[in-house]
Amino acid sequence: MARTAESNDLPRVMIVGFCLLSLVPGLLHLAGVDFGAELETPAVATPNGLHEALRGSIVHFLLEWSAVAIAIFTVVLALAHLRHERDQVTLIIALALLASGCVDAFHALAATYLVEGAADSTNFIPFTWAISRVFHALVLCVGVGWVLWWGAPRANFRHVVGLGGAFAIAAYAVVHVCATTVRLPQTMFPDAVITRPWDIVPLAIFVVTGCVLYPALHRRYRSAFTQALWLSVVPDAVTEAHMAFGSTSLFDSHFQIAHFVKVVAYAVPLSGLVLDYGRAYRTLARANARLESATSELNRRAGELERANGELQQFAYIASHDLRAPLRAIDNLATWLYEDAYDSLTGESREHLTLMRGRVKRMDDLLNALLNYSRIGRSAVAPTEVRVEALVRELEDMYAADSGLEVRTGPGLPTFTTDGVGLRLVLTNLISNAVKHRDEASTRIEVSCVDAGTWYEFRVSDDGPGIAPRYHERVFEMFQTLKPRDEVEGSGIGLALVKKQVLANGGSVRLVSGEGRGATFHFTWPKQWPPRS
Amino acid sequence: MPNSLPVHILLVEDEDVDVMAVRRAFRSRRIANEMTVARDGVAALELLRGSEAKPPLPRPLIILLDLNMPRMNGIEFLAELRGDAELKDSIVFILTTSKADEDKAAAYDKHIAGYIVKSDVGGGFLALIEMLDSYWRIVEFP
After folding, report:
1. DSSP assignment string, A424-486
2. CA of B14: which chain A residue's CA is closest?
3. Chain A residues with CB inside 8 Å of B118's CB?
């Protein structure tokens, strides 16, 4: 059942209104208003006269049929509510009401002589009323009792189907028995105090359900519908009271009042269901509105982020670009000083100038690396066919030729179409890193590849001094070096470039190394270009 | 030599040290051609067209043009140049820091003779000077 934040209960107005609707007609009767329209032989056998005479019957039929229609509508709405809220309890009870409505329809047809039973009509018609009332009380009792006992597990429609079927069969059985039994018991005793004693039974049942079953149902499944069902005891009981103690003949005042109040009894649960349905709908609409506003907020933020990112990229580009111009000038001037004033400079001063040029070069390298870093993931990539084996050999020539290190290409190095520039960047940095950080005991670098579904996992390993685990995170940060810069010239940005490039493709990179010898960098690269997300 | 008169050089560049570098390079190769320097496109046009104070720069003429300058940058200057009836056949070499493809495309779109990126730190302009020296020895100017 819907568990909304707001109250599930019926509005007070509705409760009072329905109670009044149930009681007022009786009070009006006591005050002298006569609702009766007993059958009478028409004075004139004209259509008008006939209709005059049959007024009571027609009104009765209308009232009965209203009740049936309400029952049908209740089931329809319960079905819709089921789709919405997966609420089986409402549907079960609605099906009970529908079955009862069908028996009421049978009674209505009998009362208008549209249907004739095997028995005499004087007994037949009142009997159908009595049996419909008993059936109504019982079927609701059974339905509610079943729900309370077995519950209504959400995923399981067997209860609904089973009970619905049982109700239908029971209704049919009742109708069949009524129609075919020749000798039906008398149910109307015009001269007795209790004119329709058969109506006592449903009255008693309603009292029990009203005091025990309906409250228990409402406690277990809080909703406007269950509360309305509870409230419907009032009109149901009033109906029985009017019939049991008041009505002496067909279509008299008490009779009509009872039938009117019976319609009210059907209308009450429907009203509750309508309220529930409306509330569920409103909750959904509110949730939707919240979702929409959250989405638009998200879009707005994403737009802002995109903008800020773009600005940052531009800033990085401009900064590194414009910062290199004065550097070039400084380098030129230092060089000219060195060249022109060589003879008049002391050895120390010459060294100073040399160091100056070295630092300028370093700064230029850092700015260059920063520029490259800012470009990753930004510039358009033209995919090319890459033979990784050949690429590694090329990089070996460029970076490892004089190092004394052997570069082995492991198995599985693929040839595929991808971002050649990016892959080259990653392999260059990893290989040149391995070369830079070698020691006397280093002998080789190995580049291999493993097929991992939609990715290639590349491995670049060396047997140089390893990298302690506590530095594994830091090596991937910008401008982080493990050795002093005078020992190993490096911007410290190479691995940050590797990480950014690999991550930009949706891949991952990790370092496997201990304090002992050797380090292996693993990174994944998409097989397809552009990479599938 | 195809050109009877020595080729005049117009260097359009706003960075002083780069101007010095070009002069040094010429000196080191013992190239004695006269060089005029303009700080930006506006000054360059004035020199090319001449003003009341000075006659226009003599022909034959090579223009070495930087792209990033104040007031009027290299591309704008080129546009003006190619629109001027007198000046549109000028020989222009771009000499710039920018490696950007967009700049290259925009410059070649204005029919330059060549696009040269100022070398990284430590380059000097010697190769450029040697190239120019060969260029005006071999090529006929308009």
Report:
1. HHHHHHHHHHHHHT--TT--EEEEEEEEETTEEEEEEEEEEE---GGGTTGGGSTT--SS-TT
2. A325
3. 328
Q: Flag whether the pTM goes above 0.80.
A: no
Integer Cα distance of A40 and A52 in angstroms: 9
The CA distance from B115 to A360, in Å, is: 26
Q: Are A370 and A321 in contact (CB under 8 A)?
A: no
Which of A44-53, A154-163, A252-261 tops mean pLDDT? Answer: A252-261
Residues of A in contact with B17 (CB under 8 A): 328-329, 332-333
**From the candidates A328, A360, A379, which should be mutated to test the interface with B, based on the most B CB atoms within 10 A?**
A328
Q: Are B74 and B96 in contact (CB under 8 A)?
A: yes
- CB within 8 Å of A343: residues ≥ 6 apart: none
Tell me which residue has tokens 């009072």. A16
Of the candidates A325, A331, A336, the beta carbon closest to that of B24 is on: A336
Helix axes A12-30, A224-231, angle to 10 degrees: 20
- The beta-carbon neighbor of B97 closest among A325, A333, A360 is A325
pLDDT over 80 (residue A489):
no
Beta-carbon separation of A331 and B122 below 8 A: yes
Helix axes A253-340, A347-375, angle to 10 degrees: 160
Nearest alpha carbon to residue A94 among A107, A111, A77? A77
Using left for φ > 0, alpha for ψ between -120 and 50, and beta otherwise, residue B111 falls in left
Q: Using the predicted structure, report yes or no on whether residue A3 has a pLDDT greater than 60.
A: no
The one-character DSSP state at B2 is -
Tell me the ipTM for this assembly: 0.81
Exposure string for A346-381, b = 16+ CB within 10 A, e = fewer = eeeeeeebeebbeebbebbbbbbbbbbbbbbeeeeb
**Mean per-residue pLDDT of chain A:** 85
Based on its alpha-carbon atoms, the radius of gyration of chain B, rounded to whole angstroms, reads 14
